[in-house]
Amino acid sequence: MLTQGGTSWTAEFRGLTLHTALQPIYSLSHKRTIGYEALIRAFDTDQCAVSPLQLFELPDSHAENLLLDRLCRYLHIQNYSGIKDQLNWLFLNVSPQVVTTGSQKDSFFGQLLEKTGLPPHRIVIEIVEQPTDDAERLRETVAYYRELGCLIAIDDFGAGHSNFERIWNLSPDIVKLDRALLNRATEERKARQILNGMASLLHQSGCLVLLEGVETRDQAMIAIDAGVDFVQGFYFKKPSLELENLSQAQADLDELLEEYKYYKQLIQDPNHQLASHFAMPFERTVERLQNNATMEQACVELLNHPTVSRCYLVNSNGIQIEDTLVSDSIERNQDPRYRPLESTASADWFRQQYLRQALAEPENLQVTTPYLCVTGAYMCVTLSLAFEHSGETRVLCCDILANPPAPDSEG
């Protein structure tokens, strides 16, 4: 069912001619291509394109569905094995329905790799987002691909059935975040924070993270800021049928990364500006505390700042001393739904990174990135400074609104 024409192969299925298209996948850190996703492209007898969705609706039995899946993989591997690139990965899509309705051990695939000479460690098996009623069979088949030496990827994570349950069941090497997450992050700051947190959580789970569907420069910057490892999308390179020109698929990641550094350091990252702005007020507050002023007396200057929400004092064990001082504006606008969280006398903050960092670097003002404040369920930035008072270490902490409301206009 395969035919060679020049340097590439095609396949025939139900009167359609099937071609391999490859789309590059880039590592942001390496600044180069590290793999390609193989995509099927179908054409009718008039050379008109037939969508992949229409193609995969053609099989009318499990056997024919399995045949089409194997035919596509055979075509892709046959084409890729003839390319001079001897290093990078080939990402192959495999439907969970095909995996779990086929034989438990896909001996066809192992024989195919042996026949074409393509090493299994260069194959990434992508489990695409589709439901399956046989999770155990899916897990067993994925284990077989892993035993062969292939890597495993979960596709479209964050949409439909590709969620953390699938991560726990399959322990993938790579997770591809669904493009819908990127689209939301382009429009909403909160969604961008969720995207960043999701990438971090997946890293902690032992997975490399790929963000697909990057179509604009802004989305490329969001991907860089999210901390993902790999990117893929039309902004960098569209899927191409011209397999012999893969070497020309390089992207100018240097320029993007330099722009990100400038944007992050000088425009977006507020840490340096916050530390500079609050350094003197913090020093004056600490000096008052060292001179035995009460917290109410010492923190008046800080609490009068329009962005400051609260101040509190913690000992070297992370235990809060007295209750939190809240600014007048925050007290007037406190959400009554979160009243159970308001009192923080004797609260233990040792788990917080800002406290441990302050204790590790006394007399140096620490500034966090924005996070959700547990005492009011709003986004804040915490400034912290460790100092000595009467032979004991204290840490002065001050929460600042990450998204302060705009001042009321007059007239």
Describe this structure in words.
With 411 residues, the chain is α/β, with parallel strands linked by helices. The chain folds into two domains: 2-267, TIM Barrel (Alpha-Beta Barrel), CATH 3.20.20; 271-401, 2-Layer Sandwich (Beta-Lactamase), CATH 3.30.450. The protein is built from 15 helices and 17 strands. Residues 406-411 have low confidence and may be disordered.
Rg, alpha carbons: 28 Å
CATH fold group of the largest domain: TIM Barrel
Binned strand content: 25-35%
Do you know the CATH architecture of the largest domain?
Alpha-Beta Barrel
Pfam family, one: EAL
Organism: Marinobacter persicus
GO molecular function: cyclic-guanylate-specific phosphodiesterase activity
Protein name: EAL domain-containing protein (Putative c-di-GMP-specific phosphodiesterase class I)
Secondary-structure topology with pairs:
Elements: E1 2-5, E2 8-13, E3 16-27, E4 32-43, E5 49-50, H1 52-56, H2 62-81, E6 89-94, H3 96-101, H4 107-116, E7 123-127, H5 135-148, E8 151-157, H6 164-170, E9 174-177, H7 179-187, H8 189-204, E10 208-211, H9 217-226, E11 230-231, H10 253-268, H11 271-290, H12 295-298, H13 300-303, E12 308-315, E13 320-326, H14 328-332, H15 353-360, E14 366-367, E15 371-372, E16 379-389, E17 392-401
Helix pairs in contact: 2-4, 7-8, 7-9
Q: What's the short story on this structure?
A:
The chain is of the alpha/beta class and 411 residues long. It is 37% helix and 25% strand. The protein folds into 2 domains: 2-267, Alpha-Beta Barrel (TIM Barrel), CATH 3.20.20; 271-401, 2-Layer Sandwich (Beta-Lactamase).
